[in-house]
Specification:
The protein is an alpha/beta fold. The protein has six helices and eight strands; from the N terminus they run βββαβααβαββαβα. Helix 3 crosses helix 4.
């Protein structure tokens, strides 16, 4: 199988973004689309690799660029950049929706069959799309922060929600998981949370070795299991079994 990739320019207001599109070269007809949202440091190789992997499953994948021009955020400025977006959900949601609109504008994409997945901060972002009531079949958050400044109102969430969390993740403590569960119940959402034992944060990223930030460590087994969980979730939604 040959995967064709391309850089795709789009914008959110005055912010110029450079996303990454991946799809099977030989595919014909419209395919389900998957928005892929990067970790806290910006659109880099991890998210682009995941976009390619999604394309290998038969989807059209588009990796968003939330910071513009593929800006890479260093540890010193991380809190300011992420904190600013997390503190203003309207801006974060608008920026994510700009990427989602770019995905749906691709001629190969079936806009009635859409998913969004994200990693770390990207997982938090796709949960914000769900809270916004975006018309998605499902969202999947890998080691995603679960907190929000704008909890979902009852009946707002249309997408099915799957969160995949390390049980030993220091950035997503049990009280944050409990608050998320309560929010999902109040919102009357269809949601799932899977916990992986002996697993910390960023367990899908082979570059995570705990040196930049303690508790940010790759786990090959949790990576494999969570990717299979995502595939099963996609297949269930597309088959209409839920």
């Amino acid at each position: 199988m040959t995967i064709k990739t391309a850089d795709v320019r789009y914008s959110d207001g005055t912010l110029s973004c450079n996303g990454f599109l991946a799809q099977e070269e030989a595919s014909t007809g419209k395919r389900p689309g998957v928005l892929v949202v990067h970790e806290a440091f910006g659109l880099g190789e991890h998210a682009m690799t995941r976009a390619r992997m999604v394309a290998e499953l038969g989807y059209v994948a588009f990796a968003a660029d939330l910071f513009g021009d593929r800006r890479q955020v260093g540890p010193a400025e991380l809190q300011a950049v992420i904190g600013g977006l997390m503190g203003d959900p309207k801006v974060l949601r608008r920026r994510a929706k700009a990427a989602l609109t770019t995905l749906t504008s691709q001629p190969q994409v079936d806009a009635s069959r859409l998913f969004a997945i994200g990693f770390c901060f990207g997982g938090t972002t796709v949960l914000e799309l769900a809270r916004e009531g975006c018309d998605l079949l499902g969202v999947v958050g890998f080691h995603s922060g679960l907190q929000t400044a704008a909890p979902a109102a009852p009946g707002t969430i249309k997408a099915r929600v799957l969160t995949l969390i390390g049980a030993d993740d220091p950035l997503i403590p049990p009280e944050q998981r409990t608050a998320f569960e309560e929010e999902m119940r109040r919102a009357k959402a269809d949601w799932q949370m899977v916990l992986y034992g002996n697993t910390a944060h960023s367990f899908t990223n082979p570059a995570a070795d705990g040196k930049v930030m303690p508790g940010v460590i790759y786990n090959a087994e949790a990576d494999r299991r969570s990717w299979l969980a995502m595939q099963s979730f996609f297949e269930e939604r597309l088959s209409g079994r839920s």
